Amino acid sequence: MKIATIGSGFIVDWFLTALNEIEGASCVAVYSRKEETAKPLADKYQIDKIYTDLDQMVADSSIEFIYVASPNSLHFEHAFQALKHGKHVICEKPFTSTAKEAKALIELAKQNQLMLFEAISNIHLPNYQAVKEEVKKLGKLKFVQCNYSQYSSRYNKLLDGENPNVFNPAFSGGALADINIYNLHFVMNLFGVPDSVSYTANIHGNGIDTSGVLVMKYPDFIAECVGAKDSNSMNFGLIQGEKGYIHVKDGANVCKQVITYINDEVTEINSQTKSNWLIYELAVFNDIFNSSNFSKCYELLDYSYEVIKVFEQARKKGGIYYPADQK
């Protein structure tokens, strides 16, 4: 994979660190609107090409993949432009602002036999795969609970009257999109599409959710997902069944350790040796690309579409609307 990046935030730095661990993959170009924001990344990772014109970058024939890590509201535009120019795409979570945007990207990728991935890391973690096996031992399920809360330094700016991207409806921000999306993926990759969904949020004066509770009802159990950027918590995942429960330590986003309590037996599982968990998702994408496994790629893509549909439904039920909703 010869990759170019869009964006200059911390997640791009984290992504490039992980990319260095993937055999046969490399970053050949970085894009930012200003050269001075791209140059530190280019220098750190010894990347030769810096682009400040996106049209020029997507026309570069040496680039196979484009990693989109721009503000959420720009995911669709940047991914669409890359696909239009025959590039494969890795797009940061949340995949798009709306299901309509996701559908358009998926159709374009499939029409042109291009690969398109949502960079949602937790569903590719080894410990998450262990959860998928252990959950079969719990018997009839009753509850799933996830809490991923992390006080954001940008929240202080919001309280001071500023409007940072992550808390700005115009940029498709908010706690559900930025942080609770991990919990949503944690649940849906295990159990599929819920029968019903609701979202109750703490909403700032600008109309964005700073924290909230997402509830999904399945035929036999209830899943509750808490995500907060305005407060801290002990982060965890819990899956409760009639025969016991599973405790995912430190949150559904990292699945740092899995502890099962089944029939009075306690088992601790940790198969993750990498501190940068993006390595695991990139290894999956690299394998799919190298083996030309389009069926697996599109299986993941169809799953991402189902998540975005639930995400949008929950967001609107919580009273959070984006400019993209009007398109």
UniProtKB/TrEMBL annotation:
<feature type="domain" description="Gfo/Idh/MocA-like oxidoreductase N-terminal">
    <location>
        <begin position="2"/>
        <end position="117"/>
    </location>
</feature>
<dbReference type="GO" id="GO:0000166">
    <property type="term" value="F:nucleotide binding"/>
</dbReference>
<dbReference type="InterPro" id="IPR055170">
    <property type="entry name" value="GFO_IDH_MocA-like_dom"/>
</dbReference>
<protein>
    <submittedName>
        <fullName>NAD(P)-dependent oxidoreductase</fullName>
    </submittedName>
</protein>
<dbReference type="InterPro" id="IPR000683">
    <property type="entry name" value="Gfo/Idh/MocA-like_OxRdtase_N"/>
</dbReference>
<dbReference type="Pfam" id="PF22725">
    <property type="entry name" value="GFO_IDH_MocA_C3"/>
</dbReference>
<dbReference type="InterPro" id="IPR036291">
    <property type="entry name" value="NAD(P)-bd_dom_sf"/>
</dbReference>
<feature type="domain" description="GFO/IDH/MocA-like oxidoreductase">
    <location>
        <begin position="131"/>
        <end position="246"/>
    </location>
</feature>
<dbReference type="Pfam" id="PF01408">
    <property type="entry name" value="GFO_IDH_MocA"/>
</dbReference>
